[in-house]
Input
Amino acid sequence: MIVLALESSCDETAAAILCEERGLLASEVASQIALHRVYGGVVPEVASRQHLTQLRPVIEATLSHAGLRLDSIDAVAATAGPGLATSLMIGMSAAKGLALGLGKPFLAINHIEGHLLSPFFRTETQECGPALGLVVSGGHTLLVDIEGFGSYHLLGQTRDDAAGEAFDKVGKLLGLPYPGGPVIDQLAHRGDPGRFDFPRSMRDSGDFAFSFSGLKTAVRYLLPKLPDRSDATLADVCASFQEAVVDVLVSKSLAAASAAGRKTVAVSGGVSCNSRLRARLAEACCKAGLELLVAEAALCTDNAAMIGHVALNRLMRGMFSPLTADIDPNLRLV
Ligand code: KG4
Ligand code: ZN
Output
């Protein structure tokens, strides 16, 4: 079974080919970051026009890297949501057209499920769970109890900004290039995480909800009071802000794993690239006797391999989507 998967929910145009026996055969991501950087964030109209021109070359490059022709594909999958409507419809329409033209099944895939299961992609057994899943991306921050493939219980999510959104907004406040997350991660290496005492919102709320908008506001109020705008001070702000985000994510993830009785923590989404989050989670999981699964960096940010991974799991269970399936910008995981 060979599946071609497309992902176009936000600002990455991506395609991947996965084989049931041989795993990931090819994965291509055409990032639009440079294009959106001048605006300080993603402009939906610009993103969809770019998907339109990039999708075909990306699919062709993916087929070529896999050494396959379209007629070897057994099914075509695409992200149905959540995401930007005008971006989602490009990938979905292309996938439906290909499936129809090839006379092969079509699969509409949930982007959050793609992230959630990405840490299991290259594991030895490839079993998806049981585990406590933490999805931390630009659009989502949620804790999910994963019983197994297709069986998820939402334990909690953010009430306002997603963790990645907080990184990006703080990056903007600090005058850093978009997206702020990776830049703050880099700068924080040289900073003192204890210099500024930022709020750890909802860390001790006793539930599994998050809130990051107050933290962003705290950074904004601090800026005019800074003694200077030196590189050293900027690095201290980045390190202190990052520490506040990481503190909350680590403490809630461990509490959720314990409440759900899970022995594995599976972390995914763009923010799971963060070096401090990885280090602190590794330390905390080791102390608590938990296994930590984090996908390799290329599978953490948006990509089509994670969409193909979910699609293959569906195909193996005989699950397909009708060609009448539509995009849903607000699609939920459960
Ligand atoms: O999963 P993703 O590619 O897209 C969404 O589904 O949202 O995540 C993108 C987010 C951005 O907010 C970006 O700033 C953040 O992931 N990000 C990071 C790092 N790398 C990417 N945040 C913190 N540290 C990083 N190293
Ligand atoms: Zn994503």
